[in-house]
Each structure stands twice: as structure tokens, then as C-alpha cells.
Amino acid sequence: EPKLNSLFFLTTEDLNKKLDEIKKELFNLKFAASTGTLEKPHRVKELRHTVAKIKTVIRERELNEVKEEAN
Questions:
Q1: Phi/psi of residue 34, each to 5°?
Q2: Fewer Cβ in 10 A, N or C end of the chain?
Q3: pTM (2 decimals)?
Q4: pLDDT of residue 4
């Protein structure tokens, strides 16, 4: 699970790619959970938290852009 400060060094494009990858993995894990073949249940929670971290960084950047445009 990436630390929040390591996400700041990625470009927004890279963050969006990572977000897509994680969402795909999360979908697969949820599918495995529904069929009863999930080996690491804690991984679902980890991925949900990572999605939240990435979305937080992206949103902060959006808000900074708006703030800079206002100045």
C-alpha cells in the first residue's frame, strides 16, 4: 500500500492509471469474495484506502489549480 507522500510525486496521469488498475483489482477481489475463493480478505480494505488516498491527491491538485486561477 503506497504512502500518501509517495503519491504526491506521481503525475496526475500516473495517478489516474494507478486508480484504474486498483479499481480493476478491487473488482476482481470482490468477485472472488462473492464466489468464496478470496485468499486475502484484508486486501479489499487496503485497496479501498489506496483509492481514497489517490482521489484525495487528485482533488487537492484540482483545488490548487482553481485557487491559482483565481489569483
A1: -70, -25
A2: C
A3: 0.86
A4: 81
Q: What does the CA dihedral 50, 56, 61, 62 come to, rounded to 10 degrees? A: 120
Give me the pLDDT at residue 71, please: 74
Pair 61, 7: CB distance under 8 Å: no
d(CA 53, CA 57): 6
* Residue 54: CB atoms within 10 Å: 21
Instruction: Answer whether 15's CB lies under 8 Å from 54's CB.
Output: yes
**What count of other Cβ atoms lies within 10 Å of the Cβ of residue 71?**
4
What are the tens digits of pLDDT across the range 11-68? 999 999 999 999 999 999 999 999 999 999 999 999 999 999 999 999 999 999 998 8
